[in-house]
Amino acid sequence: MRLKKDLGQHLLLSRGVLEKIADFLEVSEKDTLVEIGGGTGNLTRVLLGRNPKKIYVLEIDPAMVKKLKEIDDPKLEVLREDATTFDLCSFGCEVKVTGNLPYNIASLVIERVVLFRSCVPLAVFTVQKEVGLKLAGKSEMGWLTVFLNTFYETEYLMSIPPRFFFPRPKVVSGVVRLRRRGKLPEIDTLRFKGFLTRLFSSKKRKLKNIFPEESLKSAGIEPSTRPHKLTQEEILRLYNVLER
Ligand code: SAH
After folding, report:
1. N or C, which terminus of the chain has less Cβ within 10 Å?
2. Is any ligand 1 atom within 6 A of the Cβ of residue 8?
3. Nearest CA to ligand 1 atom 10
């Protein structure tokens, strides 16, 4: 079978790593799982081995959908869908989401999880190592890191070298886990995203050149600070002041 580079088709071959991903997802018999980008079904089979209630696999490539449908298991449902536009609340229950994400859709999928957070308590994704570290707050903050961490506690769990994939990707991969926080702030997702992208649009700009000084002061923030120096709490405070 010919693998399609533009769809990020790098198959994860290591049984050990696949089992670890299933461990990280903490699969139980009560769980409904959603796997994004099933490919030839390597992870799907391991997940089925954990005996969840149901697995829905979203796969965009018809050739892969055909392959996945060869797996004969009543718990499995393969859907030809684009994960970047899919409604994760459409199953009518909470779902744990996982997948070895193609690099070009990773951010979009993570945004989707945040958007549908009411239905997603836990997610485990394989992404580019740098992206994973950034999301887990281990390098300079970006808007998506703040967006995600407002609603999910994000952990970087392990790195996966290229040799565990076929074909080998050029970069090291990393596994991240997103665990929904216990008490979620009531925030309009799209307005919050708009605010964050504005906040991070130019890292070198001082905050007073982006937002009114009075707002910064009433949020207890020094107006000449730069965006990436802010803490998660300060950002949320500023958002609330601006929304008032
Ligand atoms: N889970 C498999 C395959 C991962 S490769 C494994 O670990 O071995 C990534 C898969 O995502 C490919 O099968 C690719 O066709 C699929 N994919 C790419 N873009 C997608 C999208 N927008 N929506 C759903 N699946 C997508």
Report:
1. C
2. yes
3. 37
- Taking only the tens place, the pLDDT of each residue in 56-91 is 999 999 999 999 999 999 999 999 999 999 999 999
Assign residue 37 a region: left if phi > 0, alpha if psi is -120 to 50, beta otherwise?
A: left
CA–CA gap between residue 116 and residue 87 (Å, rounded): 7
Number of residues that this document lists for the chain: 244
Report whether residue 225 contacts ligand 1, using a CB cutoff of 6 Å: no
- CA-atom Rg of the chain in angstroms: 19
36-61 pLDDT per residue, tens: 999 999 999 999 999 999 999 999 99
Q: Where do the domains of the chain lie, and which CATH numbers do they carry? A: 5-180 (3.40.50.150), 189-243 (1.10.8.100)
Task: Tell me if 81 sits within 8 A of 59, measured CB to CB.
Answer: yes
State which ligand 1 atom lies nearest to the alpha carbon of 83: 23
Which distant-in-sequence residues (6+ apart) come within 8 Å of 194 by Cβ? none
CB-ligand 1 contact for 79 (6 Å cutoff)? no
pTM: 0.96
d(CA 31, CA 109): 20
